[in-house]
Design a protein that fits this description.
Layout (H helix, E strand, L loop, with lengths): L1 H9 L4 H44 L3
Membrane topology: Single-pass membrane protein
Keywords: Membrane, Photosynthesis, Photosystem II, Thylakoid, Transmembrane, Transmembrane helix
Pfam families: PsbX
Length: 61
Amino acid sequence: MLQISNLLLVADVSAQAANNSAVGMIGSFIAAALLIVIPATAFLIFVSQNDSLERTSTGRR
């Protein structure tokens, strides 16, 4: 951790700028989860469940 703080001091990056960047990055991760990961997971589970039901009802396994 000491190396990172030294790097920030050498690069003349303010703590507020670093904090805003970190908050933005976390916000991007949350937005990606909401917009991409959760709908894709729900779709794959839905398709998987329907395929399983179709294979079971037709007698093919």
